[in-house]
Amino acid sequence: MYLTDEEKRILDGERGEGGRKAMELLVALGKTFDAEKLIPVTRTHVALSGQEGDTYWCELLVNGGATCKVPPSTNPSWDVENLTKLYEVTPEERELGVRTIDVYRRIGAKLTFNCAPGLGSNAPLFGEHVAFSESSATPYVNAVLGARSNRESSVSALAAAVIGKTPLYGFHLPQNRHGEFFVSVDAELNEPYDWGLLGYYVGRFAGSRIPVLSFRNLPRKPRPEEFLYFGAEAATSGAVAMYHFAGITPEAPTIEAAFGNKRIPEAELTVRSDDLAEQEATLSVANASGAINLVMLGCPQYSYDQLLETERLMEGRSVHSETAFWILTSVDTAELAARSGMRGRLEALGVRLAVDTCIDEPCWKSFEGGLGVTDSPKCAYYRERRGQPFVIRRLSECVNAAIRGKV
Ligand code: F3S
Predict the structure, then answer these.
(1) Which of 86, 160, 267, 280 has a beta carbon 3.0–4.6 Å from 166's, enabling a disulfide?
(2) Superfamily grouping for domain 284-404
(3) Do domains 5-174 and 284-404 have the same CATH topology?
(4) What confidence score (pLDDT) does residue 287 get?
(5) Alpha-carbon torsion (92, 94, 98, 104), positive or negative
């Protein structure tokens, strides 16, 4: 792998032990994937997650004198100050939450705590080379915005942020961005939830391959949240970091173009509404019904329009007294909701907004053991690993479940 003199000097410690470690990781990654060289990145996003390993890596770099050359936006961890007033965590969990926020501040990250950066807080332009971690963010910036990112881990994205470079391989090379299998879709797709089910279904077959989807009878182009849900779920059931919607996404003006002007393969998969209904049934825990203790929305974090839609569906009704209703969102969306009065109106009904926070954090553990409802298969996947079974329903049904306190 070719290294410039400056890169060699960083590897020799010119920018301290932290810089050396970050460079070492990028070079190891590049050698593993036969990268010819490193290339500059103009943006980075780190899925900091608040988990011990990620925090340790950031501490290792910052204690070695590293700071970020390309300051990354960051995923949510959790709102330690406010959520500990409501819910129990152990002193160790609290301490890790505080340590995580502190160390990312010290390394010079932008503390956006937002897992949908492509929708606003850090949205690259077409053709930009970037290093994004967060499995729902990477397919969005690649497929929808036409930027170029590999499916980075929080560790490699932070190394790229410190050095300002990433190895040239994978999705940075145009020849690796073409479709690898063909999916024909003839299903009703009306809201983000439907697109999430489609993503989950396609991801199961895709693995890490690039799907090209061709749609019949699509009444309109997908909205940003719908793209986001598709990618988030395709990266949950599979490892999809790039996809094409023929005639819709920027690198797929035609089906031929999506496949790099090579022969279009036969459709490997045909998806109809029945398939998505079956997918929905298999995602929820079997035969789950009855009282619920939590409705959790916002994985990925909800946009302003999704909050508005939730308020519309509430129709002024209050959340059941035995059910908590939390929506995770970014701090800027919550601020706009507060300014417009929407946040106050939602709170008066019992719907609360959690900012800076992910569903996969210890602050939610007091709900474990009870039944939850969500519109996100990704949320259910992570929460069930922590001991809370979930039923997956579209937004209108989640709202009704919150009001009735049962599903
Ligand atoms: Fe966001 Fe956490 Fe879900 S980072 S996408 S809320 S798992």
Answers:
(1) 160
(2) Aconitase, domain 3 (3.30.499.10)
(3) yes
(4) 64
(5) positive
Q: Kindly list the distances between the CA atom of residue 62 and the CA atoms of 18, 21, 105, in Å, as whole numbers in the listed order.
A: 6, 10, 10
Q: What are the backbone dihedrals phi and psi of residue 123, each rounded to the nearest 5 degrees, phi first?
A: -105, 105
pLDDT digits (tens, 9 = 90+) for 228-247: 999 999 999 999 999 999 99
Task: Tell me, in angstroms, the distance from the centre of ligand 1 to residue 377's CA.
Answer: 11
Structural Rg of the chain based on CA atoms: 21
Q: Using H for helix, E for strand and C for coil, what is the string for 122-142?
A: CCCCCCCEEEEECCCHHHHHH
Q: Calculate how far, in angstroms, residue 300's C-alpha sits from the geometric centre of ligand 1.
A: 5
Q: What is the mean pLDDT of the chain?
A: 96
- Name which residue sits closest to atom 1 of ligand 1, judged by CA: 300
Residue 326 CA, ligand 1 centroid: distance in Å: 14
Best residue among 299, 302, 330 to mutate for probing ligand 1's pocket (most ligand atoms within 8 Å of CB) is 299
pLDDT in tens, 123-154: 999 999 999 999 999 999 999 999 999 999 99
Ligand 1, CB cutoff 6 Å, lining residues: 75-76, 115, 136, 232, 299-301, 328, 358-360, 378, 382
* Ligand 1: centre distance to CA 154 (Å): 14
What is the Cα–Cα distance from 45 to 160, expressed in whole angstroms?
10
Question: Quick one: which atom of ligand 1 is closest to the CA of 328?
Answer: 6
CATH topology of domain 5-174: Aconitase; domain 3 (3.30.499)
pLDDT in tens, 195-228: 999 999 999 999 999 999 999 989 899 999 999 9
Residue boundaries of the structural domains of the chain: 5-174, 178-282, 284-404
pTM listed for this prediction: 0.95
| Rounded Cα distance, 10 and 335, in Å | 41
Q: How far is the CA of 76 from the centre of ligand 1 (A)?
A: 7
User: Which tokens hold the place of 16?
Assistant: 């301290």
